[in-house]
Amino acid sequence: MTRISVGVSKNRSTVCIMDQDGKVIMRPFLVWHSTEELDFLADTLKRLNGEVRVIMESTSVYQYPIALQLKERGLFISIVNAYEMKQFANIDFRGGKTDKKDSRTIASYGISYWDKLVEWQIPKDTYFNLDLLNRTYMNAKKHRQIILQELQHYIDCAMPGMDKELHSLNLNTKKDFMLDFVEKF
Predict the structure, then answer these.
(1) Is the Cα torsion angle 27, 43, 20, 60 positive or negative in sign?
(2) Distance, C-alpha 170 to centroid of its chain
(3) What is the dihedral of CA 56, 44, 68, 23, to 10 degrees?
């Protein structure tokens, strides 16, 4: 029985391979989320002896490219809730926290909960796409609000009190009067 933990981040993942005794078979290494590197990782994992299970911590949408690629290659994938992983690791954020340590912690989780790991299934297309679309929309909405607050701060620095005069919604254009003012002047 071999546990492969994948510490996922935006463009790359840290992979650690351990056996059932907790012995590190391959020291943690980086895998970029490119087709070539993920294919190489899948081939490497398929060559391992015994039952292989890949364990990942849920990280918003970042785990999907690697999970989909490995699942399509026939590997067992288990995506664990981040809070559950934190509870298992009992992480002290003042101490050291690195991708390599995280990947080892995830592998240790796999050792402890081998029989309880739930296999991740590729979601139905419609639900999966709606979920990704919703996350993207909420992220864009959050960033738009941050940018608007910054703009209001800059306008207030340049023209103190102007934000109070212009802060209301223009029902015709669905834009803030302040944005119309900035666009025009």
Answers:
(1) positive
(2) 37
(3) -10
Say if residues 4 and 53 touch (Cβ distance below 8 Å): yes
d(C-alpha 13, C-alpha 38), whole Å: 10
Tokens, residue 147: 């940018």
Could you tell me which residues come within 8 angstroms of residue 26 by beta carbon, excluding any fewer than 6 positions away?
15, 16, 17
Place of tokens 């669905």: 174
Identify which of 30, 39, 38, 37 has the alpha carbon closest to the alpha carbon of residue 12. Answer: 30
Distance between CA atoms of residues 184 and 76, nearest Å: 57
- What's the pLDDT tens digit per position in 41-95? 888 888 888 888 888 888 777 888 888 888 988 899 998 888 888 878 775 444 5
**Phi-psi category of residue 90: left, alpha or beta, with phi > 0 → left and psi -120 to 50 → alpha:** left
82 CA to centre of own chain: 10
User: pTM higher than 0.90 for the full model?
Assistant: no
